[in-house]
Write a structure and sequence with these properties.
elongated; 27% helix; 3-stranded antiparallel sheet; two-stranded antiparallel ribbon
Length: 131
Amino acid sequence: QNFNTSERTIRRYPLSLGYRPRKSVIKVKSNKLDEQKQYQFAAMHCDADIKKYIFEDECYFGLRNTQQVVWCKRGEPTPKKEISSLRAHVNLIGFIWWNGYVFRRFNGWLNSDTYCETVNEILSGNRNDIG
């Protein structure tokens, strides 16, 4: 049997079934062991006096455009696309304490030496603000 169909007919077929094109949602894979450790840490410190703490985190923000289009019916959630690597990025470090905060961008990766230098440099300028 021969079917006389065009490219346009093929492109419109998912639409006729109720599907609409969407960009997939990006979700970086999670590690169950890390999630468990985070929960245990939170449980151990839930009654701590946070006014005495300085919270610090370094972060790698990355962007990646997968250009993937998925087809979904109206009202259905857009499926998540898990990725393991990122392309464009920026490195940030931040400190938050009871009366203030400071955030900085840094180049390269932090090892123990560059981490200590970065912490000293950033926090030394805020000594009077930290109780």
